[in-house]
Structure formats: C-alpha cells, structure tokens
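2024-03-11 09:14:02 INFO receiving multi-entity request
2024-03-11 09:14:02 INFO entity count = two
2024-03-11 09:14:03 INFO echoing inputs for audit
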Amino acid sequence: MSQANQFEPKIIAYVCNWCTYLGADLAGTTRLEYPANVRIIRLPCTGRIDFNLLIKAFEIGADAVLVSGCHPGDCHYSAGNYHARRRWILFRDLLDTLGFDLRRIYFTWISAAEGRKWQEEIIRITEETRKLGPYRELYQKNGFRPPAFPLPPKLPAPDNSRMTANEQRLRETCTRLLTEGTVHVVIGYGAGGPVFIRRAEDVGKLVWNTDCQANLATYLKRKEIRRLGKAAVVVKGCDERGLVILEKESQVDRQTLRVIGMACDGMGQPKCDTCEVHQPRFADEFIGEAAAPTPATQHAAALDALMQMSPAERMSWWAQEFERCVKCYACRQVCPLCYCERCIADKNRPVAIDTSATPKGNFAWHITRAFHLAGRCVGCGECARACPAGIPLGLLNLTLARAAEKHFGYQAGMDPKVEPLIGSYALTDKEDFIR
Amino acid sequence: MSDILTKAGLRELAKEWIAEGKVVAGPVQTKPGLVLYAPLASADDIVWEGFVRPANSVKEFVFPRHELLCRYHLEGNRVELTNGEAELAAQILLGVRPCDAAALPILDHVFNWDYRDEAYNRRREATTVVTLACSSHDESCFCTSVGLGPQAERGSDVMLFDLGEEFEVRCLTDKGRALFAGKTQASERTAPLSKGPKPRFTPEHIKQFVDEQFASPFWQDETLACLGCGACAYNCPTCHCFDIVDEGNSQNGERVRNWDSCQFVQFTLHASGHNPRPEQGSRQRQRVLHKFSIYPDKFGEILCTGCGNCTRNCPEGQGLLTLLTEIEHAG
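2024-03-11 09:21:47 INFO inference complete, emitting structure
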C-alpha cells in the first residue's frame, strides 16, 4: 500500500454511450491498465451533457473533470457532439471569468476503437491532476481584496429638450394606435414605473425621460399582460435587440405586436456604457433621431481588470460578490429572455439547483442564469440594475457576449436573419482545446 | 440631562466588542451607491451618514436567508441527526434604523406563536439592538403612516441620537445598559425632535379596503407592473416566510430553512398543478392582506414598519407604497 497521506486525485469522466464508453470498455477487455482514479458516468451523448454537471462534479469533490464523446462526424445522433463543442467553447470562457481552474477540465474525442487513447488520456489527466494537487480553491474566499475597478463613467446627460419633443410625439402616436384600434394596450413608461395604457385619454401618463431605463419587452412574456390583447411596446435600441431574439425563438408575434422605437442617446446609466444601438432598427413606429453614440468602454474595462487577476483571485472575488445574493430572482424576472414557464431553479422534483443562498447554491444559479443566456443576452443590463445586492451580473453576460463575438463573430439580436448561436453549429467551430 | 458618547468613543467601543469575539454588524458602504447591513470586519467600516437607510434589513441577523436546522446521516435503517450550529456569538447590531428595530418585536410574535422556534430565538436572545434615530427620510419612507417615526423606540435596546460630534445615548433595556454602562458622560445636550415623512395613508382604510375588496379587479389592474421577484419581500424587515428543504444525497445531507416569498408563482403551487393564487394580482393582494389585515387580526399590529425598502428595491419602481396610496385614493 502506498503512503496513506498521498494525494489520489478524483476524476469524473462524463462520456457518451456510443464512442467513449465503448472505448473505455475496449481498454478494459484488451487489458490496458490505467489509473483507477477515474469514475465514469455514462450519458447518451456529449450534446446531452448539461454543463452544470461539471460544476456538480467539482462540488462533490472531483479534482478534475473529463467530457468525452465521438469524434466530429461520428455522432450517433448526427450532431450532438457539434452542439456540445459549440456550447463548450462558450462555457469555457464563462468558467474562466468565474475563476474556475481550467487546467482541471478536459474535453476529448475518443472513439469506440480508441481503447489505447482512453488509457493514455486517463494516465495523462491523472498525472497532471496529481501535480496540481487537490482542488481547494472552489468557491473559496481567500480574503483577497481586488483593486477598485474603474467606476462606471458619468455619461453626458442626454439632451432633455429633445426628449420632451419625442415624448409629445410618443403620446400622439399612442393616441392614434389606440383610437384606430390597432392595439388594445400600450406598454410604456410612466412617472412611477411602467404603465399600461388602455384608453387614448390616458396617454398623458406616458413619459420619455432619463428614468426610462427598464426593458419593457419583458412584459410581453407575462400572461397578465398578454391577456390585455394586442399590444404596442415602447422600446429603446437595446430593448429592441431582445425583441429580435424573442421573435426568433417564437415568443412574440410581430404580426400583432406594434413596436414603438425611441431614439435614445443613453440614459446616463452604467448599462448604456456598452450600448451600440442607440437607434431602433426594426420598429413599426420610429420616434426621434439619436445623436451619434459616444464610445465608452468602462464597463468592459471592469471585465478586463477582473481578467488581470489570477483564477483563484477571480473566484474569491465572485465568491464575495455572490455572498450578498439573497436569491430573490429579480435578475431572472426582469430579463426579457428568461421566459421559461418553469425555471430550472424552481424545479424541485428533483432539485436541479440548490435554493439555498450558499456558495454552492449561488454559483450554481448564477452560472446557469448566465449560460442560459449565452448567445441570447442582448446586454440591456437589466439584471444588474435590478439586483438589490449590487452584484455586477452584467460582467458574466458580457463575458459570454465577448466569447460569442470572438469565437463566432456573433452578436445577439443584431441581425434577425442569422441563426441563433446555441442550437446551431458549424463544422468549422474551433476546437483547439479538445484532444 | 442626558448621556453622551463621542463618535470616536463609540468606534473604540465597537473595536472592543469585536475584539471580545462579538459579532458587530451595521451599515457598510458595500459599493458606490449601495449601503447594506453587514458584519463589520473592522469598526471603521461602519458608515453613519450619507444615506437614508440600508437597502437590506436586519432581520437577516435573527432570521438568516439560509439556516442549517440539522444534519442527517442515513445508514441502512439507522438515521443519525445532529444539530446545526453549536455556538452562537453574541451580536450587536449597530446603527440600526428605527423601522428595522421595530420589526423585531413583530417577528417575535410569529416565531413564538404556536411553537417556540429555537433557531430564531437563540439568535434573537444573543442580539442587542443599538438604533440610530433618523435625521433624514426620502420619498419612499412612510413610517409615520404605520404608527412609527424617526425616533420610534420599539424593538431597540439603545437609542442613539446624532448630535454632530457626539451621540446622545438612551439605554432602554438591561441588555442596552450592559453595553454602555460607565461608557457615557452626563451632558446638558439632548437631541431635538426630528420630523418624519408626511403620513401617506391610514392603516384602518387599508384594512377596510382589503377586507371588503378581495375580489376587486383593482388588484389585477394596479399590479400589472409587478414582475414577481422577491426583491421586496427579501429586503423587507418584517416579511418572514420560509421554505424548509433537504439538501444532500441518500446518505448525508442537511435540512435547511431558506427565505421564501409570496410573490413567487411556486409559493402556493399545489402538487396537482393547481395554483390558488394564479396571478400576480392575487399574490400582491396576499402581501397587502397579510400585512394589513391577517397579521393585525391575529397579533394586533401591522406587519409593516414603513421602511420603504420594497419601493427602493423594486426594479420597476413599484412597492407597497404605490399600492397603498392607490388604495387610499380609491377607498
């Protein structure tokens, strides 16, 4: 027996039923020896592997995780591995921002004939993990206090006189839509929050000013609002990007929905900082002309500053941020793209994500929320605005938006003709991290 | 005659408490524009001014958002249960707002009504509340509408009044006196009475309205903007609903108590799929009903201290006050 205190890494391997599992089986029947450190979990297909399983493996004590499936072109469900590859390209960047140790996560293609490759990979992974030692940094706060991030800038206050003129035009447009009977309700901004105007004589309640920050497209998902009948919704350029996604995902019917696009010079808010669409593009009614956008990159600078830290420091930083999460789900409820009838966080038979506001429950929730918006989030910034604990959730979304742009040249909600990023794949997707 | 303590003196005192191993919590500038009640790593972390009130509440310190009730271990037919946390440090809540302090006696009712809740009471008994009387308020504040005010003493062990360089210290309970005995100086200065926000509604009107208008379309019409998150309830000093869940596997795990909110769809969802509160209107109605009718009927007081946190934390600018002023006008 070896020394009792010698570290033996635990490795969890999620493998597909058709290729890698048979590859591992072949290694066994051909008497190829490999370390017993690996625990195999067989799943139908890599495309069927929920990436939360990777996180769960670490939570229950894994020191490394392997995902392995059929080589490209060999998937027994034709394209499952292509979908897995694309998702993994994005998920990797998200985990990197969160400070997971990417050296402990492996992705390979191993066919049913590659018993020897399975043996080699497991030997390699075990040795490498043994060198890294036990994974102790997971969700740990190490007391590290990061340098203060650059503060969001005070963007120049928008020209209010222009806004007042547009407010008048907005009211006129809504009067027309309601009088003609084109719509039954206008979802717009009022002095104390969103208003739902059902009679032309109430259009005076509509306002257009720098408090109009909410993304009203989120109301289109609510059954209480849908019941009011044909709707017109007031959107800014950023909000409208969300409508593009909602239409693509068959959540809104543009035949019946009227979109009132407001030119927006920014609301002077941090979320306007990364905005690229000041002028709505696909609305039915356009109101106003946006001034040329001021390029600003401070929000992005915060992400850059975060990425300058080491992974363990990043994880510590997020652990401190998530510590304030109370699981009120305001981030989910304000998001126009979080429209599931029953959110995975609400599933309790069995529980998919701990409802507890513990490091485990909080990381699981925020990873899931961000990743379910991969290639969909339009950067409207509502999640961070809504968070009562001031958690900079936008940085997670920004990570994925950047990953989508970097790896796939994709920007969510910009071009209605482009295929959704998740749910499609290309044979040319990069796989430089897959062996 | 009054007792005063300099602000520097209080800081030194807080340092002593921390050094003694007590948990001292108070308003902390978590990030620009956000003040939250949090345990103080150092007595210097506390902020006394520049904000109306923290965005969360102190209920967290007696009724945490996540609380371990017990651990289980299953082996064959044997079940082994072990208690949650063993030792609990004494905790001092410093710079609490009167609307937060007043919530604690309200919570006491519910956690000692038909069952004495151990987890709650042990924390509550270990807690001393040092309240700072308010010197400012904003348009979300409505303590004066629910019978409280900027200098309300309810639930506090000690009241502090800002005199500039010093605090006037009024000890109200033995717990409070134990903390400040011998630490203050006698003085002629006393704090002036401060004015609270103008009353916005009368609770009797609200109760009458909610009791009579249960089936009114008012609830649906006036709550369309509500998105159904828990930001109002979770930052409310008096909301106290919870859910008990088991987390773990078939051998080992924990039974925990987590906050829950009546604003969530799932709060009343039956296993059959039926939901007796199927819409946000009925869920909002429940919140008002509980605070202004059900709780007063049962315990004789309103389940709201007028802190306004629901309004400040609502992403869509709603909150109880929006609804209550509508009711006041409608009724």
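2024-03-11 09:21:48 INFO post-check: The longest strand of chain B covers residues 66-75.
2024-03-11 09:21:48 INFO post-check: The radius of gyration of chain B is 21 Å.
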